[in-house]
Amino acid sequence: MPSKDDVLILDELDRRILQQLQQDASLTNHELAARVHASPPTCLRRVKRLVDEKVIARQVAILSPEKVGASLTAIVEITLDHQATEKQLEFEALVAGESAVQQCYRVSPGPDFVLVILVADMAAYHALAHRLFATQSNVRNVRSFFSILRSKFETRVPVE
């Protein structure tokens, strides 16, 4: 959990810049400056500061999964036999190396982890589940939910 010292104080211009970049990170500096009502040098300086301060963690392209053959989303609950910190870290390291695992959360109460997995089809999910769950002696329970419709997908972080 970040401490108050880790949180950067953002003013209104910072928030406008972040909102615009979360919508479209491909904007040129001049386009961004016009949209946030700032001069291009000010905008460039602010974006550099936000990157340097790690407020902007990275800029990526968001793909349409169905266009690249990744059309099955699974939300998976994992319960471990042993929940000692080193066992949780081992499991996190295992799933971190798997590109199909889009997100991994330690959660409480309930299961120990919730994963969001994106694969081509059920056969690919079965192979991944065997590799990540069935062969791991510390995985006690796996409960999988399969998406039949993605009605909302968002990557933006609220900065109001």
Automatic annotation (TrEMBL):
Residues 10-71 form the HTH asnC-type domain. InterPro entries: ArsR-like_HTH (IPR011991), AsnC-type_HTH_dom (IPR000485), Dimeric_a/b-barrel (IPR011008), Tscrpt_reg_AsnC-like (IPR019888), Tscrpt_reg_AsnC/Lrp_C (IPR019887), WH-like_DNA-bd_sf (IPR036388), WH_DNA-bd_sf (IPR036390). The keyword RNA-binding does not apply. One of its GO terms (molecular function) is sequence-specific DNA binding. GO terms for cellular component: cytosol. Pfam families: AsnC_trans_reg (PF01037), HTH_24 (PF13412). Keywords: DNA-binding, Transcription, Transcription regulation. GO terms for biological process: regulation of DNA-templated transcription; response to amino acid. This is AsnC family transcriptional regulator. It comes from Undibacterium terreum.
